[in-house]
Amino acid sequence: MNAITNEERTALVRVSVEKWDADRRKFCEDDVAEEVPIALEYNGISHAVMLASPYDLEDFALGFSLSEGILKDKSELYDCEVVPGCEGIQVQMQIATERFVALKGKRRNLTGRTGCGLCGAETLAQAVRHPDPVTGGASFSGEQIHAGMKAMQEKQRLQRHTGATHAAAWMNADGSIDLVREDIGRHNALDKLIGAMANEKRDFANGAALITSRASYEMVQKSATMGIAFLAAISAPTSLAIKLAEEANVTLVGFIRSNSHVVYAQSHRLIRDITK
Fold first, then answer.
1. Which residues are CB-neighbours of 203 under 8 A, at least 6 positions away?
2. CA nearest 268: which of 242, 244, 249, 240?
3. Of the chain's two ends, which shows fewer C-beta atoms within 10 Å, N or C?
């Protein structure tokens, strides 16, 4: 496994710890995950403050803007600047006037923890969005899903150093994994992946998103909003996540273990080995 890069090192903090093995105590240093308030600003107005890993923030800002429906396309983001401060980091974005006017009309201001998906929603309609059904999408075998999950976990360098980060990865139609993003928050990791894909002009329908967390409603919502047709999670989904996946035509797979997985919605994209 490759060593951690200098850029990734910014998402780590070295602290003094006591390690105990039975009754033996050892004083040493350890790497822990950095957790920083990230303020997302649009045309000079703060919209959301999220706790996140201070790494791949341009991807995070774009992915959040797209998956939350603030932007419809990357072209509507004119500029993005990351500005470190004493109390956190500001990500200052300049977006199209039409999108900014629509954003102000939502009257939504978030202050979110890492595990928070619906903080700041003022109405039930804002909290439970219904993306258009996804069309098309690649199909995968169980073997490909398991191999993809293993490949993603092998690429989790921040997790290896800290034991405290989630990951989201893109599995191409051929089953290969070449794009992974990590963060202390599961939503943030997926947003970073979405932003990275948008920056690379990837086809969201032609592959699958793999995540190292439970498949919450918000994860399915973000995926469906982007046209991602296949979402596979290492843990279980919620009932609302399953309901939305069925409604939005998203194949939802969970509880991925060494030799097993559970299909919760839209199983038609699973390739079955008829000899078994």
1. none
2. 249
3. C
Strand partners, 71: none
- Residue 116, helix vs strand vs coil: coil
Residue 105: which residues within 8 A CB-CB, separation 6 or more? none
Q: From its phi and psi, is residue 207 left (phi > 0), alpha (psi between -120 and 50) or beta? A: left
% of residues, the chain, pLDDT over 90: 83
Spatial strand order in the sheet of 89-95: 77-84, 89-95, 36-42, 45-52, 110-112
Is 169 in contact with 183 (CB distance < 8 Å)? no
What DSSP string describes 259-270?
A: S--EEEE-GGGE
| End-to-end alpha carbon distance in the chain | 34
Query: Which is it for strands 45-52 and 36-42: parallel, antiparallel or unpaired?
Result: antiparallel
List, for residues 82-109, the tens digit of each pLDDT value.
Answer: 999 999 999 999 999 999 999 988 754 4
User: Please, are residues 193 and 179 in contact by the beta-carbon 8 Å criterion?
Assistant: yes
Query: What positions carry a catalytic annotation?
Result: 116
> Which residue reads 């107005």 in tokens?
45
- Residue 210 carries which side chain, given as an amino acid letter? L
Average pLDDT of 228-241? Answer: 97
Q: Is 154 left (phi over 0), alpha (psi -120 to 50) or beta?
A: alpha
Which candidate, 216, 251, 207, 256, places its Cα nearest to that of 237?
216
The whole-number pLDDT of residue 109 equals 47
